[in-house]
Amino acid sequence: MILRVPIKHCKNCGTAVVYRLPDDGDTKERAVCPACNTVHYENPLNVVGTIPVLGQRVLLCKRNIEPRWGKWTLPAGFMELGETTEQGAARETDEEAGAEYEMEGLFAVMSVVRVGQVHLFYRARLLSDRFDPGHETIEARLFTEEEIPWEEIAFRTVREALQRYFDDRRRGSFDRVHTVTIE
Hints:
Elements: E1 18-20, E2 30-32, E3 39-40, E4 45-54, E5 57-63, E6 72-73, E7 76-78, H1 85-97, E8 101-112, E9 117-126, E10 137-143, H2 156-171, E11 178-182
Parallel strand pairs: 4-9, 8-11
Antiparallel strand pairs: 1-2, 2-3, 4-5, 4-7, 5-6, 5-10, 8-9
């Protein structure tokens, strides 16, 4: 069950929508405008971010916003219109950590079915240990695997990404993109 507020009004003309099967052969109930016949599709939101690394340490950001205020996370957030997933991940890393880095490859794609989101994490190589976090971050800090405050990690996707990152590092290869489904 996805936890989203249903569409109530047509984005084109403002008329109250009805949920029904569209007349185009679709097999799923959609929000349809009875006045202008616009079909409103509800699609997953994309969350994009990075796993920034300097040597053996990973950069985490302590959240200064809800949800999960005061918990640790990777720099990540909702993708904006007009940007690629990589550009969004870079923007979020800039906004939340103020880090100098080089983007590396796509690391993980995580479907979070319950909330209708897809999380995409890229690896990033930090060029410096100096950070200038934005207003959404209380603190940006580097952690070794042993130092990570696992009980204070904000989101399951972050925990899953970090665990897979450290597994791949021990394996000595980042030769695959992890695909994960979180119900």
